[in-house]
Amino acid sequence: MSDAPAVPPVYARVIEVVREIPYGRVATYGQIAQIVGGCTPRMVGFCLSSLERGSDVPWQRVINAQGKISPRGAGLGALLQRELLEEEGVEFSDAGRVSFREFGWLDPY
After folding, report:
1. Does 87 score more than 90 pLDDT?
2. Which tens digit of pLDDT belongs to each residue from 90-107?
């Protein structure tokens, strides 16, 4: 028997869906919540923020509906997220937005 805490079923489904986002593409918290069902964009954010450091879940590919990275804590997570996305070829406008037309995984909802 493992001592690791059980992952809520909705979190397991969020992780499963986020793993489907292709390299170089992004999706919104709302899109993930809609696919998962029975969950809110905020729950998606909580799930992704609870991942262990070094997780292989591509959490960086989930951004807000404005095409921006949502701020986290002291901002270090946001800087890392942008770096990871840029390494995948995702481009940001001068306003810090990602074009869903160019880099979106799904059609806008």
Report:
1. yes
2. 999 999 999 999 999 987
**Taking 80 as the threshold, does the pLDDT of residue 4 lie above it?**
no
Helices (H) and strands (E) in the chain, counts: 5, 2
Provide the pLDDT for residue 78.
Answer: 87
Domains in the chain: boundaries: 9-103
* Cβ contact 103:90 at 8 Å: yes
Which residue in 50, 62, 51, 52 sits closest to 17, CA to CA? 62
Burial of 29 by CB count in 10 Å (0-12 exposed, 13-18 middle, 19+ buried)?
A: buried
Q: Which fold has domain 9-103?
A: Arc Repressor Mutant, subunit A (1.10.10)
* Token pair in block for residue 43: 């729950």
Q: How far apart are CA 18 and CA 32, in angstroms?
A: 7
pLDDT mean over 22-47: 96
